Amino acid sequence: MLYLSANVSFNRFGSLSLITKLVVTRAVPGTVEATLKVEQYNTNRVGTVHGGLILSLTDTLGSLAVASKGHFMTGVSTDVGTSFVRPAGRVGDVLHAKAVLTGIGKQLAYTRVDFTNPAGELVAYGYHTKYVGKSSNHHVCIILSLCLDPRMLTDAHAYQENVKFTEDGEKTVEGNDVE
């Protein structure tokens, strides 16, 4: 408990604000690249990027890599892990990440996320396994059955289904695109 109370920089703002400054720089089917400028609240007690941030980014970016293939629902995590190679930076540094969907089947999706510093050196890498079985054939009827109040439904819900993109990710070739 002493460590957690001493390490208020990482916990003070809650997990959602840890990645509010995440910038997706490139997204094509199966790959998502992003950067994050390190803020004080992203650091640990010795002033370097907190490992929990790297793990959270592995989870988030792994899910985005699945979504980049057109999956509206990205399933649930079954396994996630991170290996730390060297300190990932200090306040003001820019952390780079590249998430790749390494495989997807009827039940599971696998991703890998590499984290590099501005010099291009690997600082950490993570893996993320997701159960996508019930979400791989997602259709709007699932949303309708889960909605507690039908009045909350809007026209946007009509787009909540899987789509297929061109290889460069620029156009939708199957399903409805969001206007």
UniProtKB/TrEMBL annotation:
<keyword id="KW-0378">Hydrolase</keyword>
<dbReference type="InterPro" id="IPR039298">
    <property type="entry name" value="ACOT13"/>
</dbReference>
<dbReference type="GO" id="GO:0047617">
    <property type="term" value="F:fatty acyl-CoA hydrolase activity"/>
</dbReference>
<comment type="similarity">
    <text>Belongs to the thioesterase PaaI family.</text>
</comment>
<dbReference type="InterPro" id="IPR029069">
    <property type="entry name" value="HotDog_dom_sf"/>
</dbReference>
<dbReference type="InterPro" id="IPR006683">
    <property type="entry name" value="Thioestr_dom"/>
</dbReference>
<protein>
    <recommendedName>
        <fullName>Thioesterase domain-containing protein</fullName>
    </recommendedName>
</protein>
<feature type="domain" description="Thioesterase">
    <location>
        <begin position="47"/>
        <end position="123"/>
    </location>
</feature>
<dbReference type="Pfam" id="PF03061">
    <property type="entry name" value="4HBT"/>
</dbReference>
<dbReference type="InterPro" id="IPR003736">
    <property type="entry name" value="PAAI_dom"/>
</dbReference>
